[in-house]
C-alpha cells in the first residue's frame, strides 16, 4: 500500500475561484476541491476593470491551501482555462520548490467535466510514463 503513496499521479484543474484535485490510484481517481477565499468587491473600479481587481493576499492563501492538498503527489499535472495555473506555478517557484519539481505538465483546458479531466489526465500520465 505504501507504494501507492509513492506512485501517486495528481491532476489539478484550477481557475481563480476553485481548484479541483484528482488523485489517481491504480484503478480509480478521487476528487477534492479547494475554494478560493471570496473577494471583497467593495472597492471602486475604474472603467474597464469590472470585477478583475487583483487580490494578491487572497491568491496566496488559496495557493497555500492548494499546496497543502498536493503534498502527497509524486507527479503533478496542472490544467486550467486562464492565468491561474501559471500564477500557481510562479507561487510554487517562490514558496515550494519541492512541489514545483513534481510538476510534469501545465496545460490549457477550458471548463471540462470531472470525467473529462480524469480521462485527459489518465491519457497524459500514460504518455508521460511511456516516455520514461
Describe how the helices and strands are arranged.
Layout: H1 2-6, E1 9-14, E2 18-24, E3 29-35, H2 56-69, E4 75-80, H3 84-95, H4 97-100, E5 103-108, H5 114-131
Strand order of the largest sheet: 3-2-1-4-5
Number of domains: 1
Average of the residue pLDDT scores: 84
What global shape is seen? globular
CATH superfamily: eRF1 domain 2
Report how far apart the termini are.
Answer: 23 Å
How would you characterize the largest beta sheet? 5 strands, mixed
Tell me the number of helical segments per DSSP (H or I, 4 or more residues long). 5
Low-confidence runs (pLDDT<50, min 5 residues)? 1-6, 42-53
Please estimate the helix content.
40-55%
β-strand amount: 15-25%
Alpha-carbon Rg, integer = 16 Å
CATH topology: Nucleotidyltransferase, domain 5
Instruction: List the helices and strands in order.
Output: HEEEHEHHEH
- Determine the structural class based on helices, strands and strand pairing: alpha/beta
The total of beta strands comes to 5
